[in-house]
Write a structure and sequence with these properties.
Length: 247
């Protein structure tokens, strides 16, 4: 009975997320007409494309041993899930789009302190989305028990917020591009940031999970991953500060 209730709750959550996606597409189309810019529609479409590598990242973060070539090939043969893509359209992109809208209205000015505060708001929103079941768990949430009692859901929120923070900078940078240039810049960007954050920033943690002498490599891997994540946030904050100085 409990399994049935959990399935019903998940189905209701998925339906709500997809309804929010269609509503946001309607708002994005209205903003396209209002601002003569397809940025918001392109950002949501880019969010949908971001799931292309999700099976690969999910496999890596759930591993405890080195995967076989067959399991890797099976992951890349996973068909595109349109329903999952609709659920993925906005959790990473919407917070960034809200900041871009505030920026275009002169209600948000990028500087170092404001940028860092915005990043922590993004982390809080990612935790909230996960708590309410409005997004599929980010790949780091699938990691096993982490050292120091660190919560995998918190790690997932930190890494997802880093992606959102990077998207925020990109959206601000390209909002005056021509439409074709804007599409080329925006559509692959969640995939690229996903590769940077889950692949490069998360690499020390992934290596630590696979090493046989488990505890110390995993501790070092987690600390390095957190340090790299902080470095990414610092670089993006510096970029936002330069944008603010150019205003």
């Amino acid at each position: 009975m409990r399994v049935v209730n959990d399935d019903n709750a998940q189905g209701a959550s998925d339906l709500l997320t997809i309804l929010i996606t269609f509503l946001l597409y309607g708002v994005a189309l209205w903003l396209w007409w209002q601002q003569r810019s397809p940025l918001y529609v392109l950002a949501l479409a880019a969010g949908q494309l971001s799931i292309l590598l999700n099976p690969f990242w999910r496999l890596l973060y759930s591993l405890q041993t080195i995967p076989s070539p067959g399991s890797l090939l099976a992951v890349f043969a996973t068909p595109f899930d349109i329903v999952a893509s609709l659920r993925a359209a906005w959790p990473d992109t919407l917070p960034a789009l809200i900041i871009v809208l505030l920026y275009s209205c002169r209600w948000w000015k990028p500087d170092l302190l404001t940028g860092l505060l915005t990043y922590f708001v993004f982390v809080s929103l990612q935790l909230l989305f996960g708590l309410l079941g409005l997004r599929d768990p980010a790949p780091p949430a699938l990691a096993g028990d982490l050292p120091f009692g660190f919560n995998p859901s918190l790690l997932a929120a930190l890494m997802s917020a880093t992606i959102t923070y990077g998207l925020c900078y990109v959206f601000m940078t390209v909002q005056r591009y021509s439409w074709p240039s804007m599409a080329v810049a925006i559509l692959p960007m969640p995939l690229l940031f996903g590769g940077l954050v889950y692949g490069v920033v998360g690499a020390p943690l992934l290596v630590g999970q696979l090493l046989p002498d488990g505890e110390w490599p995993l501790r070092i891997g987690l600390l390095l991953t957190l340090a790299l994540s902080g470095w990414c946030v610092a670089i993006i904050s510096a970029g936002l500060q330069r944008l603010g100085q150019a205003m």
